[in-house]
Every structure is written in C-alpha cells, then in structure tokens.
Write a structure and sequence with these properties.
- The complex is a heterodimer.
- Chain A is mainly alpha-helical.
- Chain A contains eleven helices and four strands.
- In chain A, strands 1-2 form a two-stranded antiparallel ribbon. Chain A has a two-stranded antiparallel ribbon with strand order 3-4.
- Chain A starts with 12 loop residues before the first strand and ends in an 11-residue tail after the last helix.
- By secondary structure, chain B is mostly helical.
- Classes of the chains: A mainly alpha, B mainly alpha.
- The interface between A and B is large, with 79 and 82 residues.
Chain lengths: 283, 333
C-alpha cells in the first residue's frame, strides 16, 4: 500500500500502530545501549549503597545501631528489587541509566505499560543476573567455589545475558515474560525548510538532470545540505555539474539547494500522480 | 517567491505552529507532570495530537522532506506515550492494586496455591515422620547455621527458651528484618524460577515444607509440639501462605510456558507473567506483615493460645481478603 512504510529486513524498526491507525515505527534499543544503561544503573545502585553504608558508619550512634541496621537492610532490599520497577512505572518509562542511554520501556502491543508488566520484567532479573552472581559470591566467600561451579555460574549468566542477541526483537527473558520491549527515545527539533526560505530567482536545470534521480538521491542531497559541510557540498555539486555540463558559478550551496527544490517539486508531483521513483535505477 | 513551491513548504507553513505547540506540551509533560498543564492545555492536547498524527499521514503520502518526516514521527511517538503509554497516577495505581489487582491475581492462581499448600503439608508430614524415626535426618534437612542449636540433641529447657525469649534481646528486630528481606527474596525467586517450567519453584516449596516438619519433629519429641505451633502460628500462617502464593505464581508462569493451550506460547506467557508478578508483589507485603508480627507480636505475646489465635485470625483475614466476593466486578467481566 504505502511502500514508504515497508521495513527493510534486519532493520531495528518495528511497526507500532496507534489506535488511530497510524504506524509510528519504533526503533528498538540496541544491545549496546541497553547493556550500557544496565551498567550505569548498576553503578548508581552500588554508589548509593556504598555512600549510605559509609554515612551510617560515620554517624554510628550508640543505641541507634539497631535502627540503622534495619534501615540499611530494608534499603538494600528495595534498591536491589525495586530500583528498576519504581522508575519504569513513571511517566518516562525509564530508569536513570535508560534515560541517559535514550531508551524507554514500552508494552509490545502498544497498550499501557502496567505496573504488573514492569514488576514481571524486573523480577526476572533475579534469575538472569543476581541469582548466579550471588550464588557465586556466597560460594567464593566460603572458599568453596571450585572451577566447575564458577564455569557453571558464568555459563548460566551469559546464557541470559546474551539472550537478547538471539532473538529478532532483542528481548530479554524479562521482556519475554512481561510482554514489553525497549525502544529508543528519539527527539528531533523541527529543522529549517530547505525550499521555502529562498527568496531569489532560482537557477534552471536541464530536463535530463532532473530526470536522472529518484527519492533516494533526493534525500541524500537533503542530508548533505543540512549537514552544511563545505567539502561534501562541493563534491556533490561538482559531480552534478560535470555530469550534465552545467557551468560552475562559484556558489555550490546555492546551486545544490536550487537543484534540491526543483527535483523535490518534480518528484512530489509525480508521486501525487502515482509515479513514485525510489532511486536512479528505478525506471 | 520564485520557482517551485514544494508541498513540504506549504505544509510546514500551515501546520508548524500546531506541531510546535504540541511539542511544547509534550516536553512539559515529560519533564514535569500532568499538573503542570493548564485546563486549556489539557483540552488542546488530544486535538493537537490528532492533527499532528494526520499531518504525519499526509506528509508520508505527499512529502519527500526526510527531516520533516522524522520530526513528525518522533513528535507523534512522544505524544502517544504521554497520552496512552503511561500509567495513571501513582496513588490510583496503588489503590487499584489493593482493591482489585492483588486479590484478583491471587484468586486466579488458586489452583497453584492449593497445590503448594498440599505440597508443603505433604513434605512437612514426610519430614516429621523421617526425623521421628531417625533423628539423623534432621541434619540432612536443616543447615547448621539456621538451626541455631535447635537440633535433636538440644535439651527441653533450651528448646523452651527459644520459644519464649524476651523481646529485649539484642538484634532480634534486626533479625526479623533480615528474615523479611531474605524471605521476600525467596518469594521473588520462586516466581522467577517458574520460567524453568516451575521445577525449581516446586523444589523450593517442598524444601520449605521439609524444614517445617523437621523442626516440629524435634520439638514434639520434647513434648513442645503445641507450644511450637503457637510460636510458629503467630507469623507463620501469613508467611507460609505468602510462600505458597509465590509458589503458585511460579507454577502459573511455568505451566503457561509448558502448556499454553489455545493461545500462542508468547501470549500465554505474557498473561501469566503479569498476573503472577502482581501476586508475587503482594507476597512481599504479606512477608512484611509477617515480619512485623514476628518482630513485635511474637516477642511481647508469650501465651500460646493468644499466639495461635492471632495467627488464625491473620489467616482468616487473608483468605477473606483474597476470596471474599466483594464487588466481584472483575470476575463478572
């Protein structure tokens, strides 16, 4: 139907149709970004834990140790089990680490992200990360961690750790169980209009030059113009001039933006008539 | 203006103000909360969202300006998540959890919970018989650190003292807190381990029952069975029920994975996962209550009858809360 919306194979874009029937197309978070976010969250939790522990040792009040000990125990419990959940049920659907990495948690079916889903996806972290690690830690502390056990714990962990890499949608076991996935938060400002701002007489171009290109080339040209870097602009301008024998008037940017406007208008018009030209090879 | 005017330009001129107003509102929502918007803003928000959404559809069909398309896509996505993707206010979420979410989830899991109760009872009886016939079994079931001297070789006086120790003892409340966090961790494990087709969850529940039976056997051999029952009951009814609920949650997850029935395996797992997680979250609250009963009640109330009474009262309270059909709206739907 609308071939602009077809998603190439292997792409991280996913269809995401709103109740109004528009496909918003979400970009899944990359494995690297997610690992980074998790690492960041882990470091923050560790930092808080260490800071609070030292603070409690520092203010050690005789007679109050019991209370401090209880607060510490409860704090550690909440930190370990609810750090992720409490942040992810919020408006941003992201822990501080995910926010830095530009990620958010979303229900796969596009419905509301419920508290139950968030709790489910994060409780699974217990068997993905904490169980093998604490098991290993406990054994190591008792001096009974032999090679076999270490290898087993590491194999278990990495099985779950690399789980997202072995499925199409980069799902962690927790995502699988909770029906969620992690997507990129994109934020873009409305860019300048490349065509409308020009108030002067535009250059005319030979018919064959305008007939040579398709949408792919047009959008590449847009990229080059928006990046505003002298060398690529000059290179592209020279290539086009050479190909169609247009004299060089010394204004590369003006030349290219005029060419862009003409080509854009022409392709748009054809598109309205039902002739969509993907690229220069498309007849 | 000279030369061609492309659709994108005309389009931008017509709608850019609306887009930017939506962007402003969305940014404010993301940074602060719903309360930061005025009544006018709130009225405008859905309208602006719908026009911007249709702008995206129109732009996709008529415009080749890639950066404009990218802008509209991200703006609509952000607006969508602020309008549809986010939960209701935290207060309402908590209220809904207590009024319907939690009891409903437990009701749905009743088969698994009943199975865990039966399993616990069965394991307890088995361990009781084993230890009564040969006390050596005790050491196989209960790790030394946990027993704290409460083993078959202990004297009756010592065992009695462990049941009626005064609340002034140092570290007892800390120990109660430790037990709460430890038990809650086990409850979370019981849920998560359900992912392995519920086998580890079942083992956890059985082991819990075995420990129960073994300790009973030791106290009973000194004629302290009824006293232990009171000591255990005051917080144990809540705690054992909590462990059975989280066991039921894990079993639910595991069986959904193994026997998805009519639904796809993925759908079955997601439905089971969310229900089970809600019940599991509830068990953390139950264990906190058990910890309070243990830390305060057990130390100050030393009468066996009163202990037993409170324990049974707590159990009746939980069962009423979970299974009493008040409202029943959720089940009717």
């Amino acid at each position: 139907m609308n071939d602009a919306l077809s998603i190439p194979k292997g792409s991280m874009r996913r269809r995401f149709v709103t109740p109004e029937g528009v496909d918003l197309q979400l970009e899944l978070g990359t494995a690297g970004a997610r690992a980074g976010a998790f690492l960041l969250d882990g470091l923050m939790m560790l930092g808080i834990l260490i800071a609070v522990t030292f603070f409690f040792i520092y203010i050690a009040v005789p007679g109050l140790d019991q209370v401090l000990m209880i607060v510490w125990l409860l704090g550690f419990f909440l930190l370990r089990n609810f750090w992720f959940s409490l942040f992810e049920v919020g408006r941003r659907g992201a822990t501080p680490g995910k926010r830095v990495a530009g990620l958010r948690v979303v229900a796969r079916d596009g419905s509301r992200l419920t508290g139950a889903a968030v709790v489910a996806r994060n409780a699974m972290r217990e068997i993905e990360v904490f169980l093998p690690l604490s098991f290993l830690g406990a054994q190591a502390a008792e001096g009974t961690a032999d090679t076999f056990l270490t290898i087993f714990a590491l194999a278990w962990s990495s099985l779950f750790l690399f789980f997202p890499l072995f499925n199409r949608d980069r799902l962690r076991v927790g995502d699988l169980v909770a029906g969620t996935w992690v997507v990129e938060v994109r934020k873009a400002a409305l860019s300048d209009d490349l065509v409308g701002a020009v108030q002067r007489q535009r250059r005319r171009f030979p018919e064959e030059a305008l007939a040579a290109y398709g949408i792919f080339e047009l959008q590449r040209l847009e990229q080059v113009l928006r990046a505003e870097q002298a060398l690529p602009i000059q290179t592209v301008a020279d290539t086009i001039r050479e190909k169609f024998g247009i004299p060089n008037d010394g204004d590369d940017y003006g030349f290219l933006s005029d060419f862009y406007a003409e080509l854009c208008a022409r392709l748009e018009q054809n598109m309205l008539l039902g002739r969509r030209r993907a690229d220069k090879y498309d007849a | 203006m000279n030369g061609p005017l492309v659709n994108a330009t005309r389009f931008r001129l017509e709608h850019a103000d609306e887009w930017q107003r939506l962007e402003q509102l969305v940014t404010r929502l993301e940074k602060k909360s719903l309360r930061s918007l005025t009544d006018d803003d709130l009225l405008d928000l859905p309208r602006l969202y719908r026009t911007t959404l249709s702008s995206l559809s129109v732009a996709r069909d008529t415009s080749l300006d890639a950066s404009l398309l990218a802008y509209l896509e991200q703006l609509n996505t952000r607006a969508y998540f602020q309008l549809y993707g986010v939960q209701t206010s935290p207060g309402r979420q908590v209220a809904r959890f207590f009024t319907s979410g939690w009891p409903d989830a437990v009701r749905t899991l009743w088969r698994g919970i009943a199975f865990c109760v039966a399993l616990t009872a069965f394991a307890a009886v088995a361990a009781y018989l084993l230890v009564r016939s040969d006390p050596d079994w005790y050491y196989a079931i209960i790790p030394e650190g946990l027993a704290g001297g409460r083993d078959p070789s202990a004297s009756t006086e010592f065992l009695r003292s462990t049941l009626y120790g005064s609340g002034k003892e140092d570290g007892l409340t800390v120990f109660a807190t430790f037990l709460f966090t430890h038990n809650s961790q086990i409850a979370i494990f019981a849920f998560a381990l359900g992912f392995a087709f519920a086998v580890p969850t079942v083992l956890l529940v059985i082991y819990n029952g075995l420990m129960l039976g073994a300790i009973f056997a030791v106290f009973a051999s000194h004629g302290l069975g009824a006293n232990l029952a009171g000591w255990l009951a005051i917080h144990g009814t809540t705690e054992i029920l909590a462990i059975c609920v989280s066991g039921g949650a894990g079993i639910r997850l595991g069986t959904a994975l193994a026997f998805p029935g009519q639904a796809t395996r993925m759908d079955a797992m997601v439905a089971a996962g969310r229900t089970a997680a809600t019940a599991m979250l509830g068990t953390v609250i139950m264990l906190a209550v058990a910890g309070l009963l243990e830390g305060i009640g057990r130390q100050t109330i030393t009468d066996d009858g009163a202990r037993l009474g409170i324990g049974l009262f707590a159990l009746a309270g939980w069962l009423l809360y979970f299974f009493w059909p008040f409202g029943g709206t959720e089940r009717a739907s």
